Amino acid sequence: MAKEETLPQPVSTMTPAQLARRRRLTDAVIEMIDQVPPDQLQMRDVAERSGVALGTAYRYFSSKDHLLAAAWADWQRRLTDRVRTEVSRDQSRGGGNSGIPPAGVCTRVTAFLHRELRAFQRHPNFARLVTHVEGSSDPFASEELAGVGDNNRAVLTALMEDVPPDVARPAMIALNATLASGLGAWTAGRLTFPDLVRQLEDVTRLVLGPYENPRPA
Amino acid sequence: MAKEETLPQPVSTMTPAQLARRRRLTDAVIEMIDQVPPDQLQMRDVAERSGVALGTAYRYFSSKDHLLAAAWADWQRRLTDRVRTEVSRDQSRGGGNSGIPPAGVCTRVTAFLHRELRAFQRHPNFARLVTHVEGSSDPFASEELAGVGDNNRAVLTALMEDVPPDVARPAMIALNATLASGLGAWTAGRLTFPDLVRQLEDVTRLVLGPYENPRPA
DNA sequence: TACGAAATGGAACCCGCTTCCAGGTAGCCT
DNA sequence: AGGCTACCTGGAAGCGGGTTCCATTTCGTA
To answer: What pTM did the predictor assign?
Structure first.
């Protein structure tokens, strides 16, 4: 009798089959977005591709933006995790007793950003997706944004272990903002990719340069 | 006979009456946007309010986004210019021989940003307009963006006269990005206004702190 | 097996940007 | 002045795509 159909079912109360359906939707977006920019991606096509009925899609996501945001969050998390492990592997490779001193914060962060940038270069539509989602006013999309933000912050904080929090926090903010805004400018053609890379390097050096030497005794 | 109606007439080739019409359109947007967020603003209403026929509007602007971008650029320029003069007035007030030393770069820039932020706080829909325009893919909108970017850069460069360009340039980039991204987060409800202010202060101090003392001999 | 909830396929709704058209109007050249 | 041309107006479609609805089928469970 009660039909609180207002908001999408919370993820936690979903049956496995439903979670699978939900995931098929986000996966379809991730697959398709490489070919088609977010604003040209149509709900009809996503539904068809994922094998989920269009009407059903709207039981899982409040709007197209919500779906896009969820897909993006998923992709972004995977990317960040992958890059994080790569960077920390590179870290430990030279860190043992090989004589090579462990890289400084600045180098480490730059390496991290470079890898993320490479991913975006290979998949420009994901960069477009970032700006699209950030511009969305759907509250559910905002939630996803917040979640990814937390994740990113955690990763960067880990990379900046040697840096005092008073510096690390604003540094993170500045870097995230520069990245987001740079991706937007790049995809819109207001910035070349090399310039984007350079900007991030410069900003990184500016905010983290003084801490490059690990643990200055 | 020839009907190259593809792009809007360039501003430079317009008669005064046409420039007036064009301005009436952007002015109408500026007046209305305070009440209605950009995505709810309708071309029909803008046309009606400005007294320009809808079809004619499209002879001046390639799309809604283009019109929004132009209006935004106009507002932003006015704001920046106003704030710039205010700040430089405050500068000279204490700079003559009043015994008060001229404020350092960091303080100056912070003052500038505070004033801009205040304007956005009073007119949240203009903040939304910023993110909307930045997310637009209309190339004409991008042009406007680039123009405003140049303007902003010029103003900030002037404020940072004491800072070596190697620092000033990335500092500017970081600040602009932090501002843009912060405005987006604020209007989306992911950030409170005080937090937004704080973030900008922190980043400013981080990137310009070392240069706070004017001309360290 | 029977029942209710959820999914399906597809059509239909809706709304706002954009375009098109049939008159007017204003400048401009001769 | 007369007329030509380019531009403007008001309004009516065109159109695309997100969103919603519904009759029917499927699925999970008691």
So the answer is: 0.90
